[in-house]
Amino acid sequence: MFNKIEKLTETEFTEVFSNIFENTSWISKKLYRQKPFKNFKDLSKKMISIFENADNQDKLKILNGHPDLADKTKIGSLTSNSNEEQNNVGLDRCTKKEFNQFKILNSKYKNKFGFPFILAVKGRQKSEILLNFEKRVLSNKKTEFNEGVVQVIQIANLRLKELKNKFL
């Protein structure tokens, strides 16, 4: 399994890993240059480290690369990962009231913080996501930026785990 990854060309490697951090090929290109990897855990650790060591401006670009949750207008334009993650928790099947709640919260959050609300939604219920959203929109910018970074890392780790399972 791991030999398959090690044998990928830079273009192939970038294609496989560029969406671990929502449409961010620069991280996968930088990771490729750190080959060889001891194993998938080493690869994952190095990838997360690249993000963690990025400056706040690059982190903000990655935060801004994430889609709004349950945004009907974006359905079809989400990355396959985001689409799957949101659909698996039912965000594509919100009631009209729930869609309106998400729309209002997305707008309020982005206007206040300058980036979208980010939450690793896998395994969560819509009601839990909305409660988390309602709570976090009351926070301050520094706290939310830091929480956004934490959530991006959680999403990346979940995506890496799924990718590892696909290569097994």
Describe the overall structure.
The mean pLDDT is 87. This protein is mostly helical. The chain is elongated, with a radius of gyration of 17 Å. 64% of the residues lie in helices and 0% in strands. It has 2 domains: 2-55, no CATH class; 61-167, Oxo-4-hydroxy-4-carboxy-5-ureidoimidazoline decarboxylase (UraD-like, Orthogonal Bundle), CATH 1.10.3330. The protein has helices spanning 2-6, 10-17, 25-32, 40-52, 56-64, 80-88, 96-113, 126-136, 141-167.
Q: Work out the count of structural domains.
A: 2
Can you identify the CATH class of the largest domain?
Answer: Mainly Alpha
In CATH, what is the homologous superfamily of the largest domain?
Answer: Oxo-4-hydroxy-4-carboxy-5-ureidoimidazoline decarboxylase
Q: Return the CATH topology of the largest domain.
A: UraD-like
Hey, roughly how much beta strand do the residues contain? under 5%
Helix tally equals: 9
**N- and C-termini, Cα separation:** 5 Å
Radius of gyration: 17 Å
Tell me the CATH architecture of the largest domain: Orthogonal Bundle
| Uncertain stretches | none
Which term fits the overall shape?
elongated
Arithmetic mean of pLDDT:
87
Kindly name the structural category: mainly alpha
- H-E order: HHHHHHHHH
Helix content: 55-70%
Number of beta-strand segments? 0
List keywords for this structure.
0% strand; 2 domains; mainly alpha; 168 residues; 64% helix; UraD-like; elongated
